[in-house]
Amino acid sequence: MAAESLLKPVINQAFFTRSVHEVAPDLIGAILTVDGVGGVIVEVEAYHHTDPASHSYRGMTPRNAIMFGPPGYIYVYRSYGIHWCVNIVCEDEGSASAVLIRALEPRHGVDLMQQRRGMDELRLLCAGPGRVCQALGIIGADNGARLNFPAKGGGTPSRFILRPRIHDAAIVSGPRIGISKAVDAPWRFGLRGSPYVSKPFPE
DNA sequence: CAGTGGATGCTCT
DNA sequence: GAGCATCCACTGT
Q: CB of A85 under 7 A from strand C?
């Protein structure tokens, strides 16, 4: 896995029409906000449609239908009956793949995130997929929302804004968290040295 | 700190 | 009816 990755990628639909294993590390360092609240993406996981750990592995169901649609859309699902988790859909080899957003470095709307999370400590505000959704106010109704691609014919702007990173980023990778299949595949990516990840990466 | 277990709801078998 | 792409509180060092 490349230690350094693309400087300032252009975030458009083509960005998400690539191998999900390339898209995922390229999202590290980008800024994700929902209604202006969010921060720098410091941890993600890639889920390819041929991956037994992916929701799309067994084909389309009502829950994962968004994954089978066009890339650049938001897939939200409930985890363990309690938490929401947010993904960005990718089109990899013509079928459903996605990148799970696992942690952010809080930057925008910190007060609101602290209020929603019921805690002040920045390091734990967005350190985990459930925490990211709670801090950013992402819920099931956001499933199927669209990222702000360059406007084509107007329409209401999305709550979800993704801006590319502006500095190069040192990427680390390792096995994913909380899964029971394909447990050794190194498809979790993080910003090297970030204290805002959900769990340290082995260096 | 590390380890355990409870909360909770929806999907798919 | 089982099994989760989780988090938090609580236990015992």
A: yes
